[in-house]
């Protein structure tokens, strides 16, 4: 009665095994695209580079889980699979291993930065250990793992193994040297982040000394969209013009730009139809935002760059400008040796040059009185925040760590005048992993699952 | 021997063809012909004739001294000797059954006709819950018998098995989203059954009744027997016409005081097409917090301009070099168009014509039938068509071999099926964002002049599509061919031993075609998509049956059989997500690489079964069944599973002397267990493919962890019941109580995605369903010319989650705005969502009130999930009445569903947009939210801060706060009203017409419920699944009125 049953029940639609390149393409494209999309809307909003004139809930701090939890945990299985394949006999490849370790570190760092305690040590072990309700680990534990992964990635990528055939890598097309630079640059980012808690100077100095980090725009971890379909186009270009028009220039950024006489203003934004540059304040409620919008017509984002072109705007994980500003701050704080000013100037050069400002104009910009380095972290971090335009939530992380540049809540804020410091856990965790969810909420302190509960690295006391 | 001629007629003098006439105590017998006439030889010594017909009280007639007579049979309203079709198509007397079976006759179904035959069961039977779809004629209906046994969220997991003439058919619900498109309801499989061809529909309710169907019968079985030529003599022709008109039964209650805009301001400029353009006020806003509709002059989309174009023709109006318009809008009065939504809809129309021929002689019979159904929905350009061809026939080749065959071909199609759920493709979504000042008729001309097929004309370009553009250009067509056929041979091997061999298949091929025109919000450069769905299932079975009268007291039967089932399915979707040239829907016209996905599956189930019936003195009965299945979907070692059932019944009124008032009393009881397999390919996880990116192929890791050693799931059930009749059967009471427990459930268990998977397949969970079904039937009045029959059925079912797995105490069944959670020890169907923070201190005078945020004056939202109620009803009641006066019949049916809650997204969104009637108060004055300020020391102060109405309503009805739009799902519906007239046979004597009836019918005529914006009986779709407990931009339900004409020649 059961003849041929096994054959009948063989799935003809999908494979049980795949090669690493098919997963590397998924991971590198989705993570890079999504991080930049997040930066473009909410990341830029929370640092007040742009503000919303419609659906303003986010800028009023009416927050939920904001989707990033599900995003990262949904791509971690692919990252884990790449790691497994790259370490298995027969398919061993140190470059894929380094790529997977780098992406894993990036994902978990984002998760803990955005949510606080997150499943880490027991995460992704449903299959291997039958754990379906992983415990949440504290931020310090996650950071230890993230830094270890990046150090391991550096070692693996140092071997410089070539990838045969299609690499699947939409960022560096399998170039181990460049991946190694990204891994080390991320180490610098995350070491700086925990520097209020820990003495990171030896680690940072040795990375700087070794020199294998991003120090030119050539090394930027960017994704250039090919624009062949909606999938590989700049996402905004495939949406409604009305959706594009829900964001405008924020008054806060306009103030910076006017102070600095900044050429990026004209690159990222359009003048309104009266020919003026006008911003809109963050944190207006729907009615007030609309009224403001009608009265003042704030500047929209550059429609040619950010809407009509499928390929001109790029996605990125990390660029040279950010690395230079990290080093500038580290030098200023005495964590590493070297001139804060020269790193600061390099950061500005890298950012302006990336956005197409020519060298003469860059040098002129550096001579602007308000731009010239004055040794204050406020100026350094203001310039860094501008340079972090579209770079996921990195500007917000710096604000949470340093309080700089100073930001104020908007007039219709729904968070009691507090500037929020984390997202809420997704409500599905309350149903699917309740005990550990409850444990994490109480371990983090604060009143329940709350957007005002600070994490480990921002409550350090070293500065 | 003398010859006697007679005519058998019913109580209305309509002939009863095929009525049986036998000489009592002999083997001499004949059947009446098509006109009810018969001739029979009477022995010399005389004899009594026994005249009988199914559903009528048999009558004894003494022909002595007569040569001709008309014999009138009276209907047996109680139908004690009713014969029903049971599992495997075996006909049995109801009185002998150990389980509950109910049937609906074809007449009942075809008179007040529902295009979807499943809807005909609504309210008519205890234990049966039918929920109709909301996309008009052709939409899905969901049927659940005795509650949900499965925690599986698939719409098909709790569906009963449908069997047509012994061949199981597919009843899958098909709604397909994705590729950026929204859900479209393409109907459920059983919808292809033509009501005109149905002789009876029998519902087998519990595992006891369905044990022989095994795996597939655990949720009950609906057995459909199609009409045949049985009993026919000569040729008969019947013609039925059913014509109905539909209009809206429900529509959200819109306000008529304020128009589009924000902060009381609005002026049209370019409809939000370019927000940075100066001029216009809030014309990108699609909410209704605008100016009062008091006739003030305001530029609007349909205002004229100095260029002669409509203001809304923004793509063709003359422009200045800086992009501003060179012409001027001439402001027009801003006034309400209170019937604008009504104006969009039209009167629906459904006409069905059936012609059937029957014929037969002593050797065989046949029936051919053709039905053409055409329906135009209340939504413009939405329709449904169905053509059904049916042939069946039986022939006695020899006196020991009979062959039967039937073939049913159905073509159904539509040029456009409406979109469901939340988003721009659904017109109900548009209405909840619409403006009350908009004249619907002004949108009918939906292209901008000179830009036909390229650019639509609309009142708003920021979010929305013109509704006429949506229904005429962005169509969801489909065409489906289906063949259901079977061949059967019956052999009489000896007097007691018979053998049946049968094979049949259900095959369907469907093509869905979706077109999206240029300038559609979701598809600025158009889209063309095709979905191809193929399904094939074949069943071959045999049955060897031995029946023997052992002695005066004992009857005995034993049968054994086997079934081989194999099924294949294929799904393919191809989509061009942008097009090069407008209005050409061909994949060659794709402007970007095509995206596609496809899925093939197949499986086989082999079964062996045996059953036995023993009866003692025709008052005590014992049934035993046993079945073993082998399923290819389960792993080696676990793929064979056995399950037995046993049932007993006793006719107490025949066993003991009963008081005179009791005319019949039967008790019954049984136990059954049923096994179940799973879907194909649930044993090993596989990778998925994604769209290419920058030329690189992409794959996804498995999102579901499979279980290599799956075991079959199992349902155990007990059932007891009683059937009591009083006062010459004028009053009847049928009671059934049951308990069924499903365990080892094969579930796709959602897990925290932090584990590396979104779900995993497990073998666990225990769901218990307990319920009571009561049917009370009575004939309070019965005279020669007038009778009144009434029937009340009552159903109460409680599903409880007894156990999950691995210490798990709750299980997320579905997530769609609300979370449907199964919690150990709780009822099935609990809904969880969020609400506002409330005073929880019971000793506070403000207990239960909202806590207001002092800064904003608005209630504080809490992120913590709370139980918002249960979507299952507490009980359901059907109340049916029919009156007969001479040749007139009048009947009506009420359907009452008590209890349960649901989340109305129409109310939630309509509250935030200011479109619904309850958002009018406070617009001029502001609103003080009812609630208290938390003083932080355990005390509270009543809130006094006034906020703008728009701010208040959009916060209170915010979609992230489901609690404020939860409603009681209780409703009472006047489901059916019929008035019929049968022409007296005398009047027809001189015509070729044998009988004629005409009836006026109405369905879903009235509704009483708490939330007057929508019909709580709606199905919401998400990801191809039915989502209970949520109403999501439901299309309005409709009522229908019509005429049914039946003529037989």
Describe the structure.
The complex is a heterodimer of chains A (463) and B (1049). With 463 residues, chain A is mainly alpha-helical. Chain A is built from 20 helices and 6 strands. The longest helix of chain A is centred in the first third of the chain and has 27 residues. Chain B is mostly beta strands and 1049 residues long. In chain B, strand 44 and strand 45 form a beta hairpin. The chains are: A mainly alpha (463), B mainly beta (1049). At the A-B interface, helix 1, helix 2, helix 3, strand 2 and helix 12 of A face strand 30, strand 34, strand 35, strand 43 and strand 47 of B.
Biggest beta-sheet profile of chain B: 22 strands, antiparallel, barrel
Provide the CATH superfamily of the domain at 161-244 and 347-425 and 474-829 and 871-900 and 992-1048 in chain B. Answer: TonB-dependent receptor, beta-barrel domain
Number-wise, the strands of chain B total: 61
Spatial ordering of strands, largest sheet of chain A: 1-5
* Low-confidence region ranges of chain B: none
Number of extended strands of chain A: 6
Biggest sheet character of chain A: 2 strands, antiparallel
Itemize the secondary structure elements and their pairings:
The complex is a heterodimer of chains A (463) and B (1049).
Chain A: H1 5-8, H2 20-46, E1 50-52, H3 68-87, H4 94-115, E2 118-119, H5 126-129, E3 136-137, H6 139-158, H7 176-193, H8 201-210, E4 221-223, H9 241-244, E5 247-249, H10 251-260, H11 264-268, H12 286-296, H13 303-308, E6 315-318, H14 320-332, H15 340-354, H16 359-366, H17 377-387, H18 394-402, H19 428-432, H20 434-444
Antiparallel strand pairs in A: 1-5, 2-3, 4-6
Chain B: E1 2-9, E2 20-23, E3 29-31, E4 37-42, E5 49-52, E6 59-61, E7 68-72, E8 83-85, E9 91-93, E10 101-105, H1 106-111, E11 128-132, E12 141-145, E13 161-164, E14 167-169, E15 173-175, E16 185-188, E17 198-204, H2 207-210, E18 221-226, E19 234-248, E20 297-298, E21 332-333, H3 340-344, E22 348-361, E23 364-376, E24 383-398, E25 401-414, H4 427-433, H5 467-473, E26 476-492, E27 497-518, E28 525-549, E29 554-576, E30 595-616, E31 620-631, E32 640-651, H6 652-655, E33 662-676, E34 688-693, E35 696-700, E36 704-705, E37 713-726, E38 731-743, E39 746-750, E40 759-763, E41 766-782, E42 786-803, E43 810-816, E44 818-823, E45 830-836, E46 850-852, E47 861-870, E48 875-885, E49 888-898, E50 901-904, H7 905-913, E51 927-928, E52 931-934, E53 940-942, E54 946-947, H8 949-956, E55 966-968, E56 971-982, H9 985-988, E57 995-1009, E58 1020-1022, E59 1025-1027, E60 1030-1031, E61 1038-1048
Parallel strand pairs in B: 1-7, 13-18, 36-40, 46-52, 50-60
Antiparallel strand pairs in B: 1-4, 2-3, 2-5, 5-6, 8-9, 10-17, 11-12, 13-14, 15-16, 17-18, 19-22, 19-61, 20-21, 22-23, 23-24, 24-25, 25-26, 26-27, 27-28, 28-29, 29-30, 30-31, 31-32, 32-33, 33-37, 34-35, 37-38, 38-41, 39-40, 41-42, 42-48, 43-44, 44-45, 45-47, 48-49, 49-56, 50-55, 51-54, 52-53, 56-57, ...
